[in-house]
Amino acid sequence: MPNSTQAPMALDDADPELADLLAQEAARQFYCAKLIPSENYASLAVLQAAGSVLANKYSEGYPRKRYYEGQQLIDPIEELAIARAKALFGADHANVQPYSGSPANLAMYCALLPQSAPNQRVLALGLPAGGHLTHGHKVSATSRFFAFAHYGVDATTHRFDFDAIVAQAREFKPALIVAGCTAYPRIVEFDRFAEIAAEVGALLVADMAHIAGLVAGGVHPSPVPYAAAVSTTTHKTLRGPRGGLLLCKAEHAQAIDKAVFPGLQGGPHNHTTAAVAVALKEAAQPAFRAYAAQVISNAKALAETLASEGLAVVTGGTDNHLVLFSTMPLQATGKQAAKAMDLAGLEANFNSIPFDPQPPMNPSGVRVGTPSLTSRGLRESHMRDVGRWIARAIRGKDDSTELGRIRSEVFDLMAQYPPPGFEAPYPARP
Ligand code: DSN
Fold first, then answer.
1. Using alpha carbons only, what angle is made at residue 248 by residues 244 and 250, rounded to the nearest 5 degrees?
2. How much distance in Å is there from the Cα of 29 to the middle of ligand 1?
3. Looking at the domain that runs over 286-415, which CATH code has it been given?
4. Closest atom of ligand 1 to CA, residue 134
5. Mind listing the pLDDT tens digit for each residue in 65-117?
6. Ligand 1 site, residue 132, Cβ cutoff 6 A
């Protein structure tokens, strides 16, 4: 008989304080309109795998080459995830062990630019133009190990200016060019980046974290045919658990694997690997292609509504899952707008816009996206409601009664569209 210290205790009994916080967060996620473009709702199946006993197991190494015993079932789980990643994205090789996108990016650079390489220069999109910290921003460790220069976007169109990028690449002579963004609302032309890389003798790598689900769903061009290696997170449009993934050409497979383990990481998070495998299976279904297409249609409807409400939409619209807009035409900074939206049940993040005159901690813009609301089943007509609520919240940023009214309308709509991953009985309305 198990003694009392071994008796299983559910979270509610074992830690009521934590359980209560978790229940409140579940209710918040259920009733608020999640508009952060890098978030999503993972399915119940993904959450079950992520919360499984696989979290108890150490597996340093790779399938069939481990430093711990007891891998009889871990190996086939990781092999399943690898096979599904390769099949879904048409890649020669996949590494499913990166803990998330940031370590995946550092591993990618370390793999392709070994210390012995004479040229350590990398050209990537700058943070103010929609790049990521791990694309060599000065506060990121990536900038300590490699010599980054940054390209931007055109001052008028706010899109990539390939003439300027190729001129910069000829001058800078990078060994690597990074194509990928966190706040760029248009198609990333990986073929054009590949041409530039080939011309200057660089390798192209891609960070497709934001758009991986759109690539999987066939509604955004894939970087895989063009890039030596591709990094991604697994939890954004791809709708898996929080995790990372690297894909590469066969000739870089060994370097990529060595860079992840033992280069940067210890044991893989097997529970996450299993959940990634589940998400990759889901993303290979026809329904996911329809989902990805709807994400974009919804984002276009949202962009149009925001523009018609007087907000300044960067690039005038969107081709993907996100919309970046200046809130200044409604006399609010991005931070003021995002705070007001949060009080109104509309969860987004303040964001710099290209050539932003405002500082990064109080920029001119807000970034919104449709992956989460589309996962709930919302469509274009709902996005028009959401766009009007956003504008009302910004206009009413100092009016708590108005923000409360909007919040109530948002909650009414969300209650009709339960998100994936939530089982009845649903959380009580906060
Ligand atoms: N932090 C993510 C985003 O919100 O875009 C990128 O990693």
1. 140
2. 18
3. 3.90.1150.10
4. 7
5. 999 999 999 999 999 999 999 999 999 999 999 999 999 999 999 999 998 99
6. yes
